[in-house]
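It is worth pausing here to work through a concrete case rather than discussing structure prediction in the abstract. The textbook approach is simple: state the sequence, then state the predicted structure, then interpret. We follow exactly that order.
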Amino acid sequence: MNLIWATRGRVWGFRFLLDGGFSDPLPKYEEAFLGVADEMKVFHRTGELVALRFPDPLGRVDAASRIIPHDFVVLGPLAEPMESVDDGLRLIWRRPEVADEYARIWDLAKPPAAKG
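Step two, the predicted structure:
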């Protein structure tokens, strides 16, 4: 899968939930979010990479009442039709391996290991 996803849960800190098939997704993540790291909503295309960030669509917050952001790095054909944060919500968030999986895990005491 050409998707890296980093977020946090209600009690667990920022983690990669999808690693895009990389043994270490951090370099691609940093490359994609370079220069836009502090913005709450992000759509930023850099070459083949799309950095996408938006607040949790259901308004979920962590134990400290902070809004939970979802950060994605989208690569390859999945990134081609994306032109905005709204496109990201439609094309990425609504995928079962994203929205349904997050609904299942966000309130767990520990997050699952990152998947490819």
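Step three, interpretation. The mean pLDDT is 93. Helices lie at 26-33, 85-93, 96-105.
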